[in-house]
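Researcher: Sequence of Flagellin domain protein follows. Predict its structure.
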Amino acid sequence: MNNFGKGLSDDERTDRGVSPQVGIVLLFGMVIIGASLIFAVGSIALGSVETQAMAEQGEQMMLQVDNGIETATGDNVSSGSVYLEDDGEYELTNDSQITITAVNNYASDRTTIPLGSLQYEDESGNTFAHQAGGVWRGEGSEARLVSRPNLRYYEAANGTEGRVELDITNLGGELDDGENRVTSRPVSGEGDLSRDIGFVNYINVTVSGSAYHHGWATFLEDEFDAASRSDCDVAGSPSETIICHDESTETVTVIAPIEGENPFASHVGIDPTIYGGLYADDDLTIDESVTVDRYNGTVGWVSGNVTEDLLVANGELELASDANITGVPVVDGHFSGKDGAETSNIAFATDPAGTRIDEINGTEVYNVTDSTPPELFGAKLSESFDGIDDIDQQTERAIRLIDEYEDSNPIASEKLESESDKNVDGFYYEDSDIDGDDIDEFDTSNGDIHVAVDGNVELDGVDVTGDGRAYLYVSGDIDTDGVTVDGDQAQNFWIYGSSDADVTVRNVFQGVMYTPESNSLTVAKDTAVYGSIVAGEGIDIGENVSIHFDETLRTDVPIPEENRDVTIEIGERRSPLDVTFVLDRSGSMRDNDPSEQRVDATKNFIGLMQGEDSSVLEGDQSDQAGVYEFNQNGYERHHLSSDLSSVNSSVETSASGGTGIYSGIEIALDEYERNRSSSAEQHMILLSDGQNDPATEWVCTDGGWLGCDNWEFYDYNQQTLDQAERAADMNVTIHTIGLSDDADSDMLGDIANETDGDYYPAEDDDELEEIFEGIADKVTASSPTTFEVASVDEPTASPHDYAVNVREHPVNIGG
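Model: Prediction complete. Tokens:
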């Protein structure tokens, strides 16, 4: 049977018959899957590109927002605008803040500024923020800085001082899509954070609650060049800048040195201006006798050998007919005087009264009272001097700082006590008046004392002891009666007062009364001031007031350089003199001065000295003279006396015995201690033709004819030098004359050098008269007044302007 035209039989079938169809299906499937994979990968890549593009677009948009805000907060601009795209979500948040704390050893000052921020999230989930003037971008759980906020830390080249400036924007308002108006609200919190506390040891900057704390940590670490630490608690003054980042609390803290440690007086920030003994910031009338001279406070006050100093008025100065000023008036205003008014020196004024009579070295000179001959001279200042500003702000700061220090350091701060051994170094705060019997002593032996008094102060019989300083900061009135400082060192006691203070000074005051622009000043009759007074209005100076200015206090001279070279011959005046003549009467003087030239020379010298009615001497004064001789012992021919005729008549000589130079000096110095004039210069003229003879010897001090129970050794050369040191301590200048080649020129030279005198060798007695005349010309001559600027060594510096400057810019954003 033919099988042509029939299919395969069942037992002959296989799967090969379906291969073409399956292959086609598989081919299409693979194409579709491949295309899908390509599409998926392409979509992912495209999405990433789009996300990155949107992120960059978001950064640019936020930078434009930053530019708009910066424009609106710029100088002399109060508004602007920003455009917010409608392809994302915007939100104004206020859940973070920045706190800046300035710290020193005595106080701290803190300000906190909310970090109102504009946050933006685009359609791709990218997040951005404008915060504190900077632009930040979120990156997952972290963040990075796009543009920096307005915070700068400047470090000095020596690495010991820094300065911080923050200009923080605080955003608020209600947002609209599209154009939004940006309005800068009034600036708040502007100024120097150190203004209220003085110097700043270090600063603490803390950012808290910010979602962008990672970016803040990176920025602050870089800006402050800070070392990372886990703990930012510090004590004292940190020596390095450190940073702490607490991720759990979203807090970043930086501790940075600013100015380091400084004395409390520096924190107060008073930079005193002291011209001379007295400064009045008002018109002043003098109708009594007033003396203003100067001394060097490092060695203390010694009467005699002092120089006139400045009485300064920042206003008019009028001298009544009985006025008598021993000193140099300096007036920034009109200077006038009544007939009979006197000054010991020429006065300086911007507007002297009277008639112009001369021009000396470019300075116009006036006859102030138009008397004939001229009695009161005024030199015209070429320019005004600077007035002295009040210290109200600094005094208030000191009182507040000490009050705060007492609150935070109850163990370290104290209350003043009347017992003399209680008020030692440290800080004291009194919130009520101090009465006269509350305090007897300030003991600065172990350090400085700072006393804040929120009230009035009365000091009666108070001693300032020790080598340190005592400072009083007083809000109310001040009354002193008998205040002394060890060694007359006025720089060791300062009283600072306000412009509202009524100030009274009685009896003795040693120190500095610094109350510029005060309400009133009364200096009672017969008061002696050692130091300086700086006062304001309502000045009342009593009769016979003496102000002895400590020249180490001077910070400036109110007389311009071009006006200081003025010398007027008025029949020159000088200070009175106390002169003792100590003449050798040993036996050798018969040969070395046979014609007794020393008698004539001494009498001629006394003849050049001035009596009470002399116009040469300052004030109603008189020279004094005394005559003494020595061989082994000292003898008095005439005690110190203003009766110069009587002294002259006493000058006689004799010659016998050995030589004991020390005995002549000793007896004359004993007389100075009894009868010296407090206002006179002390000079001694010592003449000898030999040397101590004997120079040394053993002397029996206890015994009789049969023996000696006690022998003592005497070195007469050393005794002579000891007497020279005593003279120097008493401010007695010894001028020595060695007659003949046998004179001990070394000893006589040492005596003169020790006392700031001169040694004159004389070959014979014919030279004595010329030498005596030369010494007389020197000690009786008037010397021009000169001024030397010293500096106050504390405060050592003043707080820097804007050491920590913080500004908050509130900004409103809305449609």
